[in-house]
Amino acid sequence: MRVLTVSGVFAVEDHNGEAMYTLTRVSRLLLNGDGERTHALSHLVRVLVNPLTVASHFSIHEWFTIEQAAAMTPFEVAHGCTRWEMIENDAKDGSVFNTAMVEDSRVAMDIILKESCGVFQGISSLVDVGGGHGAAAAAIATAFPNIKCTVLDLPHIVAEAPTTHSNIQFVGGDFFEFIPAADVVLLKYILHAWQDDDCVKILRRCKEAILARDAGGKVIIIEVVVGIGSKEIVPKEMQILFDVFMMYVDGIEREEHEWKKIFLEAGFSDYKITPVLGARSIIEVYP
């Protein structure tokens, strides 16, 4: 409990000579969500500390030193399949992962739509690439009823998505192959799971999608930009440690010059970074 109080998970008070522990803003987010509570991150924590994920990092030695292993991700070295194949084939693991993404999107989009809603103004259509069960799209469609939203994800994921919002269309497909046309393409926590070559391929598909509308659209990326963010809330050390964490899928957290490199290679001409959510930023990328 001393560790948890020092790290801010709990607060401790003296109560007639006895220690009394209370919740903080951090631990309130770790409570299980219910019908009335929409801001909870308990499933996200389960994903981050999943033994399957943690065990992957113990395969980094083989990943570095064995030629055959170097062609795979540490997760594949440890488990014999990719992280995405595991999610598809293990119903329980897939359910926890998708629920975690919904939780994270609800919390993130609540903050973004309060502090940086201007990035979504003046557009009529948006496609959320890799949008899972549509939590981010639902938040946008609710805040901006005039925006027609499409969620693109793998067929087995969108097949389980709720259809409660009339202004959201779900499309099953592979974003490496095709992205539906829209004024704006949203990539929320997608590119950090891929190396540069794959990011360039995804961004080129994004560019095709927004140019097909001939409306001078943009790509909105919500990701970490290492070294940029609220240093009072999240130190750079945390961003770097998460970069190490993402190695389990051969992912990477990027500094601004690394983002700029893939934007230019994908054929974009300009971008704008707006810090938000402490560690993360909104990057608007223009063709």
TrEMBL record:
It holds the Pfam family Methyltransf_2. Residues 72-269 form the O-methyltransferase C-terminal domain. One of its GO terms (molecular function) is S-adenosylmethionine-dependent methyltransferase activity. Keywords: Methyltransferase, S-adenosyl-L-methionine, Transferase. GO terms for biological process: methylation. InterPro entries: COMT-like (IPR016461), COMT_C (IPR001077), SAM-dependent_MTases_sf (IPR029063). This is O-methyltransferase C-terminal domain-containing protein. It comes from Oryza nivara (Indian wild rice).
